[in-house]
Amino acid sequence: MLFGSLVDAIGHTPLVRLRTAAPGVEIYAKLELQNPFAMKDRVARNMLLEARRTGALREGAPIVESSSGTMALGVALVGTALGHPVHIVTDPRIDALTLAKLRALGCEVHVVRAMTSHGWQSARLEELERLMAGLPGAFWPQQYSNPDNPGAYRLLAEEILADLGPVDVLVGSVGSGGSLCGTAIALRRTLPELRVVGVDSVGSVLFGQPDVPGRLQSGLGNSLLPKNLNRRVIDEVHWLNDREAFESAHALARDQQVFAGNTSGSVYRVLTHLAAHAEPGTRVVGILPDRGDRYVGTVHSEDFWAEKELSGLESRSAPVTVPLGQVVHGWSTASLRELPDAPRHLLFVESNTTGTGMLALSVARRLGFEPVLLTGAPERYAGLDEAGCEVIVCDTNSPVESRRTIQERFRREDLAGVTTTSDFYVPAVAELAAWLGLPGNPADAVAVCRNKALLRERLREHGVAQPGFATLTDVAAVPAAVAAVGLPCVVKPADDSGSNNVLLCRTEEEAVAQARKILGIRFNVRGLPTAGTVLIEEYVDAPEFSVEMFSGEGEARCVGITEKSVTGLPHFVEYRHVFPAALTPGEASALEDTVRRAVLATGITLGATHTEVRLTPEGPVIIEINPRLAGGMIPELVQLATGTQLLDQQVRVAAGLPSEPVRAPARQAGIQFLLADREGRLAELAGADRAQDTPGVDRVVVTAGQGAQVRAPRNAYDRLGYVIAHADTYEQVTKILADAVGRTAVVLEGDDAREGHAQ
Q1: What is the pLDDT of residue 354?
Q2: Most exposed of 69, 315, 592, 612 (fewest Cβ within 10 Å)?
Q3: What is the pLDDT of residues 83-92, one digit of tens each?
Q4: pTM attached to this predicted model
Q5: Nearest partner of 717 among 725, 708, 707, judged by Cα
């Protein structure tokens, strides 16, 4: 295999089958020690490349890291190869070989001389802070808290699956929490029953033991609790003392001809024990991180053994099972299912400003999670004070700032999920979920849905029916696009929301003007940069519906179909929804089948999608796919009609819980929005109480305040309120909505109250 550089050679490590006396059991070792320096090469590459991609690490900026072993070598390798000055903070435990390698690579090495409050770890961190203060623009990878550490091991998991296929047990050492947790999380996406076993050292605090700063093992264990450690993904832990770890490294060399350090030796000891007690047919894989050349003066030195009196320590041939929290001195094991329950946070990145946004926060709390809203403008959300959630103010439009805020505030095991009810932040959430190893859709799939130009290309590749279209980024291309699509045509931005700036154009001149308007908008209403792309589409004059789907466990299930009514042209503002739509079985089946093909084509795998579609005489035509729960209060209609709370289901899957079946509709439900028919300043939306008294009406809500500037609707933001109703039949519910809305009046300043207007 040919690589362009040594950085490209990281990974692709051998997976070898070990000899074992256990009949019918396969035992494999993933030789991460075969990376250019060691396993942490993967971590360094992922953290530094991601930091450069997001802008956290600027070109040529210094890199500072705290490490006494292989992390230092990985940062040195990747950092210097990318052209960055590298500073390594370490302690006297660093071996002479590693120190020589670091200096040969051109790093500046800073060795602390005394322990502080939490041993060598805290001493190194204090020195690191001093260095950072004197190096403006320096980047600290923070292997203990940076999710790009466990994220590096997605590739390791992919290599195991590609080389071996399904496995039953994964064994790995635990230090920063990265390798075992990251590999386990990635493997469990396809192997949910995987058993995960962690290996720690006696005297490490990671799993509730008291700290023993003088322990001799390196490469695993810790005196601090790293934020990257997610003990919820580990089923059991084994502790080995220094003698047991060191002699296990000797056994690994003797039995399997793998010359390694104490961390690999510890994993080997637990690995072979588990294999000896496994059922025939079990496939066990262990991750071996460190080779032995760094340990010739310690683990593999008789003089060192004698100096430290290692032979005087107990060495057990099998682990003793203990309750979690009992102090151990030799090989012991405990189940992590005994971990006490602790509140888990569900993060919401911004919210929509109407409908389900604030309700989702209360749903999360009702389901047992601690809701947290990350927002750059909390004043945007009416009702936030009553939502009962923690609010963290940060720049949610900045990936670097969002990541920094989450990384510093939360431990990985305290996070249940990350989600949003805002169209604009669905792509950011997909990126964050992947970064944190939490449930979510592939970022590429979400990006395709959010950018309608990309969606059009994807649907064309998969042969899914859609309008004729052309995409452009320059007004000069409009005439050719209009000629290709035909008139009248729909001109719209590729990535806006709520029918904003969607216009039916009947002439080329109108299309040019609308395209110029769209391309002149550089940032959307949330301050995010726009795609700078215009779609010119064939106008499909046919009834409009939305198909609500829910994906999970490899399939996309249809929740139901909503009938949508839009205002008069040239705008496309939805003013009424009825669920379920009045369709023949054949029509419903055609809509469902087409939308399912479209959703699968995008790559969406988890949670709700809201697909807008028009039903022509030739069949369904996809207008757009939204990778989130339906807006416009459609989830409320589904609940009224079926008793199923879709918002609950979306919150559940965001937190990694299974969704529940949706019941068949038992009745009809509908919503009609209150709209103005002209421009002015709102004096009053009269008659809401009379509308509420209409039989069959469930709720009347006025969202526009007195004095608001209103107009005949051009997008969803022009709605002034809504009426929700239910009934036994379609005819009944549409009549109730019409009657209730007819009792309201939009009164503008300067109107006679008796001459108000409503639609």
Answers
A1: 66
A2: 315
A3: 999 999 999 8
A4: 0.91
A5: 708
Would strands 195-201 and 86-90 be described as parallel, antiparallel, or unpaired? unpaired
3-class DSSP state for residue 15?
Answer: strand
Secondary structure of residue 564 in the 3-state scheme: strand
The candidate with the shortest Cα–Cα distance to 242, out of 214, 222, 268, 270, is: 214
Q: Which residues contact 350 (CB under 8 A, 6 or more apart)?
A: 373, 374, 375, 376, 396, 420, 422, 424, 425, 526
Q: Using CA atoms, how far apart are residues 474 and 482, in angstroms rounded to an integer?
A: 13
Q: What is the DSSP string of 460-506?
A: HHTT-----EEEESSGGGHHHHHHHH-SSEEEEESS--TTTT-EEES
Using only the alpha carbons of the chain, give its radius of gyration. Answer: 30
Closest CA relative to residue 674, chosen from 732, 593, 741: 741
Total length of the chain = 759
- Average pLDDT over the chain, rounded to whole? 94
Give CA 539 to chain center in angstroms: 36
User: What count of other Cβ atoms lies within 10 Å of the Cβ of residue 108?
Assistant: 14
| Per-residue pLDDT reduced to its tens digit, 521-558 | 999 989 999 999 999 999 999 999 999 999 998 889 99
201 forms bridges with which residues in the sheet? Answer: 240
| Distance between CA atoms of residues 418 and 433, nearest Å | 6
Rounded CA separation 506/484 (Å): 14
Q: What is the mean pLDDT of residues 681-699?
A: 96
> Does the pLDDT of residue 235 top 90, yes or no?
yes
Place of tokens 């032995």: 292
Q: Is 70 exceeded by the pLDDT of residue 374?
A: yes
Please return the burial class of 728, using the count of CB atoms within 10 Å of its CB with bins 0-12, 13-18 and 19+.
Answer: exposed
**Amino acid type, 522:** R
